[in-house]
Design brief:
about 220 residues, mainly alpha, 9 helices
Amino acid sequence: MNDYQKKRLENIKRNNARLRSLGLISTLEERRSNALAGCVECSNGENDDEKSALKTTTSSSASGKKKKRKNVQVDTQMDAPTRRKSLRLQGIGAEGVTITTVAATTDANTDVIAAEREARIQECRQVRLRAAKAFAECHGAEKAAEENPTASYEHCLMRVRSMSEKGLLNRVKAIERAAGKHCVVKMAIFKSCLQDEGLWDLAEQASEALERLKALQPIPS
């Protein structure tokens, strides 16, 4: 891992810790992001060695003679196919698993995903409330009313509720394209609002954009 890759990984971990403390990502999302960033950097280093080895192998093999392909005769005489009942009509899937079993497994997986998503939302909400309470205790109720840490979140949530899906997707692209000083926090807030509203497909796209932004710069203190 070179110096650039180390710096990138440090930025991602620092951003994740800060976003976690603000209640903008869950503990699970933090662990996944850190693990993914570490794997990417390691694989990039390995790929550099693999590309070098592949280049050497390719250049050496190019100098050798090409082997002629042998013509293979195919027997065109085939037995007439016998009639059989389709697997679908028999209630059996392509892998030999009954369709009812697959359906039950799918339902179970859906329930697990839904429970995991709800746990992430509730965890982030609790952290945001604790952050707002701590700010009020530290700076006083009057200043907290003026600079409520959750104010930006509530404002973003109102915008999400008033925008179309196309508009929301364009907003994700706009935040990433601008890559401003506070782009990481903005994208994290937007991602959390999408999750709160149950827009998980858009939230996933926002999460992917957030991962790319995390590596650019640490969150301003």
